[in-house]
Amino acid sequence: MLEPEHSSPKPTPTRAFGRFELRQLLGKSDRTMLWLALDPRSTYELLLTLPRVQPPTAAALELWLADAKHAARLNHPNLAHVVEVGVQDHWPYIAVDRALGQTLGERLATQRQLPPDEAVGWLTQALEGLAFAHEAGLAHGDVQLHQLLVSEQGTVRVMAVGASLSAVASSDHANDRAMPLDPNRLRLARESAVRDVLCAGVLLHHLLTAAPALDEPDTGRVIQRLPPQGREMLRLPWTTPQPVPEALRAIANRATTAQERQRYHNARTLLAALNGWREAAAQADGGALALLIDRLRSVGHLPAAPGVGARVARLAVAESQRTDEMAEQILQDMGLSFELLRTVNSAQVQGTQVAGNGPVLTIRRAIALVGLKGVRQAAASLRAWPGPLSEPHAAALQRLMERVRLVGHTAQALRPAGYDPEVVYLIAILQNLGRLMVQYHFPEEAEQIRQLMQSAPAAEPGEPELPGMTEEGASFAVLGVDIEALGAAVAKHWGLSDDVLHMVRRLPISRPVRVADSDSDMLRLAASAANESVDALSLTPATRVGPALNNVAQRYGKALSITVKDITEGVQAAKGSLRSGPSAAVPRAPAREHAEQGDPGTTEFSALLASRRS
What we know:
The chain is an alpha+beta fold. Helices cover 52% and strands 9% of the residues. It has helices at residues 58-72, 104-110, 116-135, 163-172, 183-209, 219-225, 246-255, 267-283, 287-290, 293-299, 308-317, 323-331, 334-344, 347-350, 363-380, 391-414, 421-430, 433-441, 443-453, 471-479, 483-494, 498-503, 519-539, 545-560, 564-577, 603-613; strands spanning 11-17, 20-28, 32-39, 44-51, 82-88, 91-97, 102-103, 148-150, 156-158. β2 (20-28) and β3 form a beta hairpin. It is elongated.
């Protein structure tokens, strides 16, 4: 037998394998094994990867060698350079120079507890190599600790790409001569690439917990115990050797979640999430903005809404037009509204304001500060609709903007007496700044987040449906950073004050609502209530809209003196206001005591559902 009985890297008696001297078995799985060997001809130590099972026929052996030689031609800094592909006594092998480093298993034996950033740094390098191989049409098929090399400088390289895939294919084609472009083999390569990503998720779990997932060092065996093959769950425990940040926990848990549809199916998507987390963690307050900064410079914050050119042309000749009339037109263009807020709250403009005036939170005041010329300049700086977006992505952004405008009008309808409706409107839409930025700058990722948030049919009849992720968890899992943090980072980049930054962050669902102690708290609550109301109506299945709106009323009822009927009437009034602009929002009626604090069974609620269906 070529292979000893134990898989732990213990010294074993030297044995001959052709011209090589096999010195130590460094690791094995059900598919591959890795030997430390000496080549007497060169006196160099090599790492030999062999299949656990010999190819059964000459054709299968030829196929294995062809795939290995194909993979050996790949050139990437995170793929180990192949010294030799050969065969000895019908055992094929791939040789790599030992000087490239230790296996990850060897490294962990001396450094069991890794800081999360170091663990993620190693895994992202491996994913870079895997993604390059996948894009070349090759998969690894057996991503294990013993197939990853770590150099003294911390460079990670993936060894033996294609060796495991060839072994699996060989068993499928033991009696025929399978061609490299065989559709079955192409399908197998795609499936193995997905398996590689799942294996990477299992390794991430191992690195963060300092212990093999499910107490099983073979990632392939772990996968067999996860759905759909098995029934076990793999999630990070709440107690780990070193604290795992919430965003990284969401990424790790998504990578191995029991719901196949929610897993990462592409090395690039997992890599993007981990890199997003690393950037945010490395730069603290500015980390979230680092994801956006280059795109903000190239394509702006948001494009001009369709038809903005005509509106700007009218403004150009309307020197005597009243400020509130101009503000109403501008508020219908979200991109122009944001650009004016950014302009007037910048450090340059703030320096010209009278001390103590505070931030600018109305378009009327912005117009007064920059003048008509400033409005024209702001409009001219916007990209024409839809900017760089494709037609489907532009349609998705348009739908989101309409929903955000509905939120703004709803906030006006729910606002307590005495608060400026335009300020409430702008705070409510600014609470969606992160969502708008992601939809415009990362449209593919925005679609991934929406898919992860959706529930799925039950796996078996009679079982409950499979829940989707929360928006926070989905954004962590896709971007590595919370959408709220992205919005807050952009708002801070604009120069908005800390008080405003507090208002434009939605109240977390998990946090109880308390009576406001200040005007800024009251504005934040009114905007948050409007956002939750519209989310309940637009993102919740129709059968659950009633309980969802009731929850909103219960959360905010005491702080805002609102009931379910106030919410349903407010959303209805907001829908009517969408066609007329923010100034047309119906003022909120005085608070009334309603009996219907349970499930809303009112005429207004029925009309609300009917309008959603239309």
